[in-house]
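Sample intake sheet
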Amino acid sequence: MKTLVFIILSAALVNNYVLRQFLGICSFLGVSRELKSASGMSYAVIVVMLIATAVTYPIQKYLLDANNLGFLQTVVFILVIAALVQLLEIAIKKYMPPLYRALGVYLPLITTNCAVLGVTIANVAPDRAYTFAEAMMNAFGSGLGYLLAMVIFSGVRGHTEDANPPKSFRGLPLTLISAAILSLSFFGFSGVVENLFG
């Protein structure tokens, strides 16, 4: 149990895919203007990460590795993620139309979201040697980290857009500077999580 909690906290805080590894930046910058769309996108990413891990883990272990087809990993994982995103998009469109409209073009972009692909590949990496349960906890923690980054950054953007910065900093420059400062703040979690379980 201690190991699973450590994996979740490490994935969410220490190895945050958005703020530490800079994966999934497109949706991070594109959907983080409003809290509702930022949290909706984050929940969709968490669901895709969990389902993609549940599907790709056995494919890697029992199909690709067993038949020496590891070179097909990226192609197979992208196809699986694309299929899952299409199913999720259909479900959101049918059951949550306002969220579907709010997410707009960013929902299909989960297909090419590097954070989702990065999590699924990291979960089956030989150097990590995760069990299925550990891989699922890593996917969940990574999704929570994505949610945390999106929600915090949504709040930051709300404040910066209401401010009156110099003309040269308005728009994208201020957004990128804010993202960089938020990213730096997550570096402080490195020692904290390790020492909690050390």
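Comment: The CA atoms of residues 22 and 162 lie 26 Å apart. The mean pLDDT is 87.
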